[in-house]
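task queued by scheduler; priority normal; single chain, no ligands, no partner chains; default sampling; output format set to C-alpha cells
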Amino acid sequence: MHIDRSKLVGVIDEGTNSAQFIIYKIPEFEEVASHQMDIKVITPKDGWVEQDPLEILETVRQCAKIACEKLTALDYHIKDMVCIGITNQRETTVVWDKITGKPLYHAIGWNDIRTDETVDKILAKLPDQNKNYFKSISGLTISPYFSALKLRWLSDNIPSVKKAIRDRRCLFGTIDSWLIWNLTGGPKGGLHVTDVTNASRTLLMNIETLNWDPLLTKTFSVSPTILPEIRSSADIIGPVNDGCILNGIPISGVLGNQQSSLIGQCCLKPGQTKNTYRSGCFLLCNTGEQKVLSTHGLVTTVAYKLGKDKPAVYALEGSVAVAGSALKWLQNNLKILKNIDDSEQLAGSVFSTGDVYFVPSFTGLYAPYWRKDARGIICGLTGFTNKNHLIRAALEAICFQTRDILEAMNQDCGFVLNKLNVDGKLSGNNLLMQLQSDLCGIPVFRAQHRDTTALGVAMVAAQADGINAFVLKPDTRLPNHLQDTYLPTTTDTERNLRYTKWKMAVQRSLGWAVTKKSEAMTDERFRLLASIPCSLFIFSTFLMLVHSRRHIS
C-alpha cells in the first residue's frame, strides 16, 4: 500500500543530560533529521541534582529549530510534520508561576536524594513506618525517587513556592507538563496536562482510577489546584502555540522515557521485557491489563494507554540508579578511564575481575532493595588487582543489578522471563552485553536502532485518534527493527556462585549512611514514650540501673 512519503512525525526527547529533536518518516519510522544538545546538571550539595527549567525549554526549542532547518535540504517541509510526540526524564519535578511563567525553583532531578528527612516525616505517620503502605494505591514505594517527596520538600523549604501555592499561582509538573504548558502558550493559555505514564511516577496517582488520589495528595500535603490534568498517552493535546518553528503542529503523544522505550522495543505483549542502559538502568516487564503488585521490591507503573477509551496497560519496573554513571565516576573521580568508550577494550584485557565486586550505590540502592542508607563499596581487592579489574567489575555491577531485578520479576510475575531486549547508549558495549547474558543465563537481544526511546513515542503520536497515520498492534514489528543476539557461555554453577558473592557485597554496602532522624521521627518516639504509664517507665529505668551496676561489678 502506498503511503504519502511526506508524512513525518517529530519527537522531543528530553533526557537527564541532553535533549534532542528527531524527525521520522512514516510508516517506516526512518530517521530523517535530528539535532541534540547537552543540558547542564547542577549539583549544589552532595546528593542534590538540579537543572534550570528555562535552559531545558530553550534547548528543546533550539534542537527543534536546527532539526527542522535540515529538512529543507532533504526536500521536505515543516508542514509535512503531522504531529509531535514528547518523551522525557521521569520524576524530575518543576514548579512555576502560572502568571509570569517563571520557575519558582530549579527542577529537582529524579536521582536527587535531598528528601531523606521528608521521607522520615511521612513514614513517622504510617503504621510500622511501612514504606510500601501506599503500594496498593500508587504501585510505588515511599522513596526520594518519586515526585511527591520532591514537591513536599519544595513546599516545606522554599518560601516562594509556599507563597505561590497559597496565592493559587503555583503549577506543578514533571518535565512533560513544563514543556507542554510552555509550547502551547505558557501564561497565554498554555495547557496544564500530563499523561498517565508520567503521572504514575509521582506517587500521587491512583493506578486503578488513573486520577489524582485524595488520600495521597492529603498525605503529601499537595494542593490539587497545582496538579495537571491526566490524559492518555496517545491523545491530541493541542497545537504548538508559542511562536517557535513548530507552531501549529499538534502534540499527540506523551510518554515517560522508559515506557516509550518499552514501546520502541515493541514489547507490546505480557511477559516481554526490556532494559535500557544509560546513566541508570531501567528494566520494564509488560504485564498487560493486569496490575501486578510486587512483593519483591519492584514497582507497578502504567506502561501506556493508547487513547481516551482504551484500557491502560501496566508494567513491573525495577530501576538501577547507577549504571553508566559508575563508569563516569571511574573516569572523572578515579581518573582510570580516559573515555567511557574505552571501557570495553580495557575490561576485555583481563579474563575476569580477579574476584573483585563493585557495588556503586552512591545515592543508595533502588530496586529491589530500596535502601537509602547504602553507599558504594569495592571489595575483594588483592595485590594483583589493577584498574582493568575495577573497570570490568563496574560493568559486571550493571549486570548483577539487572539480574537482581529479573529475579524479582520472575517471582512476582509467575512466569519465566527467558529473554531480554536491550537498548540505550551503553548497550553498544559488546562486552557488557555478553556479560549480561552470561550472568543472567538468558539470551540478550540488542536493538540495532539504539534510540528506541524517541521511536516509541513517535509510534504512539502517529497512531493517536485524529492523526491516524499509523496503527500500533501487539504484533507490531518495524521493517528496520533488526537485533544483535548474545547467548550465555557460562554454566549455571559458575554464574550462581558469582551472583552469591555479589549478594554478599551488597550486604556489606548497607547501613553506611546513618543519617540523623528528622524531628518528626524523634517527636513520634517521644510521643510514644509519653504514652507509657509513669510506673512502667520508673520500673524499666530501675531495671536498667540494676543491669549497669552488675556490669560494672
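post-processing summary
- The two ends are 95 Å apart (CA to CA).
- The chain is about 35% helix and 20% strand.
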